[in-house]
Amino acid sequence: MFDREPNIDIVFRNGLKNFEVLPPSDIWDEMPPVKISRNRHKIVYAAVAGLALLISVSAALTALFRTGNDLSVDVAANIPGASFTGSHPSGAAGVALKGQEREAKVIRHLFRETPANVVVTAEPSSAAPETMTVETPAISDRENDPAADNRNSEERVNLAGLFTSHDFGNAGSKIIPVEVSETKSKNSHFMIGGSVAPAMSIISDGGDNETKKLLSEENSMPELSAGLSVRYKISSRFSIQTGLGVTSLGQIVKGIDIYSGLSHYYSSKGDFNYVVQTASGQVIASNTDVRISDGSANRVGSVISSAYDPSKLPLNYVNDDLKQRFRYLEVPLIARYKLIDRRVDMNLCGGVSYGYLIENVAFASVDGNNVKVGYTQGINKHSISSQMGFGMEYNISKSVSFNLEPMFRYYLTPFSDASNTINRQYSFGIFSGLFYRF
Amino acid sequence: MTEVEEIIKGCLSGSRHFQELLYRRYSPRFYAVSLQYAGDADEARDILQESFIKIFENLEKFNHDGSFEGWMRRIVVNTALERYRNRYYLSRVDDIDSGEEPEADPGTTDFAGLEASDLLKMIMELPPKYRMVFNLYAIEGYAHREIAEMLRISEGTSKSNLSRARDILQRKVKIFTGISRRAINV
């Protein structure tokens, strides 16, 4: 089969290449059925995202239906001698209102033209349509009843019908100024708000000397993170929060000279001309118009033939910093515990967050403009991070509060797939924002 | 979509039928690899079975960037290594750190008449520690530094074991070809 070979390694390598041996037939028969586990991470991501979505939707729906439920409308119109009794003139069952807010408007409208001294409370409407009933005792009767001002049950108007004020014939034509006050429920369970944070990220070297060396010539780049949140109060001290946000992480690679205008002189033969080794992974310079050089650290590789020297070309100098930006769309799920319940609340908060990479760009800046260089290879599309922080919540009013939350974040999933940068990121940000309680 | 891609897709859907198709297609090649690392048929059988279970379980992680067969082969080799480490790690002996990689005597052996099955048999007959290093270095193309990490030995030991494996194989080849030549002359 073989002639004389110079190296026994090659003989065995070539001799066994594509060599096949039929295995015993019972191996397959004895192999247990393998249930394909779809990527477990994806399931976790999907579960977290689904849960967050569910909470968000529930919050939104509950908020929608709660708008009228906690609404009390006190109407005080002192019209001596006036009494009011009425019913829907049609005598028919009312039509169910679609929104409680509409119901409240009807109540206000009704009593502007109703000469009565009444207190009207809009009760939560049931799903089934109800007949409108109005039972309002005359003033004389009320004077005999000392508890009359405090009660509201006998003057309750259940409105489920759609009607207008002129349906009440004896109401009189004088438009009565009314005082309407709406009080929020003391037990607001939901809060919605937005927050922003300047954040700094830190890449760990993972004990890898090469990464450590690369990191010595890199700095974190401050980036802004922002998001919208919905918070649900489970008890007086404990609440959970979710939402949707955008988190940015940035890194500056120093000492990388970047020039533009290469495409005028050199026609690229591939998708890129240069690669730059960074602690986050290899930057592929997909912009073939740039020339990249590295004077000291020998981190830049080029696919341009060594016979061609672009350094002699009259290119435009851009910058000596290469910047990397990684932007994630995030769905956090955060639990918070109120340590101090005062005008300024103190909270301990922590949770997890799922992030999906939406931007991965490497660029250089010149005069406030960014010149895209390329992208970083091997950055994980999905991330799960844990976060912990201490929050201060200043209650500006009963409904609005201002939040200030220093948060520390640790990425549970590796930041990059690059073989020599099995590293994780940390980040620190101070979130501030406003929340509205409802 | 190629046939292999269809099989992969079928496997990903959890179809036992497609799993069997994949197994039938690649098991002869990987059984040969398993034998190469195992030294005996029973161990090779276990390696093959364990490897295919891992292949099916991790199929979703194959990112289609490189060769599918190469990806599967790595799983087979890693499975063999894992089993080797579990079996032989505690009993390893003569961890000699020579530091030098002695070259095999080149060009003095007549390889005429050697079949792949003969080569496989010779590798299988090597002591496990020599066999592993020879396979990883000569067949798979790993460097001594990588082999040292995989087998948890020093680079020197890896080089030394490779040298011994080569010596043994040279002798076996000489004996074999001598016998073959005599048989032909007869």
Description:
The complex is a heterodimer of chains A (438) and B (186). Chain A is built from six helices and 19 strands. In chain A, a hairpin with a 4-residue loop joins strand 17 and strand 18. In chain A, helix 3 runs parallel beside helix 4. Chain A is flat and about 80 Å long. The N terminus of chain A is likely disordered. Chain B has 186 residues and is an all-alpha fold. Chain B is 72% helix and 0% strand. Chain B has eight helices and no strands. Chain B is globular and about 50 Å long. Classes of the chains: A alpha+beta (438), B mainly alpha (186).
Portion of residues in helices of chain B?
A: over 70%
- Count the E strands of chain B: 0
β-strand percent of chain A reads 35-45%
Succession of helices and strands of chain A: HHHEEHEHEEEHEEEEEEEEEEEEE
Average pLDDT taken over every residue of chain B:
82
Give a summary of the structure in a few sentences.
With 438 residues, chain A is an alpha+beta fold.
Layout: helices, strands, pairs:
The complex is a heterodimer of chains A (438) and B (186).
Chain A: H1 8-16, H2 26-30, H3 40-69, E1 73-74, E2 86-87, H4 100-112, E3 133-134, H5 139-143, E4 157-158, E5 181-182, E6 190-203, H6 209-215, E7 218-221, E8 223-233, E9 238-260, E10 274-278, E11 281-284, E12 290-294, E13 300-302, E14 316-340, E15 344-366, E16 369-376, E17 382-395, E18 400-411, E19 425-437
Helix pairs in contact in A: 3-4
Chain B: H1 3-12, H2 16-38, H3 41-58, H4 68-88, H5 116-125, H6 128-139, H7 144-151, H8 155-185
Helix pairs in contact in B: 1-2, 2-3, 2-4, 2-5, 3-4, 6-8, 7-8
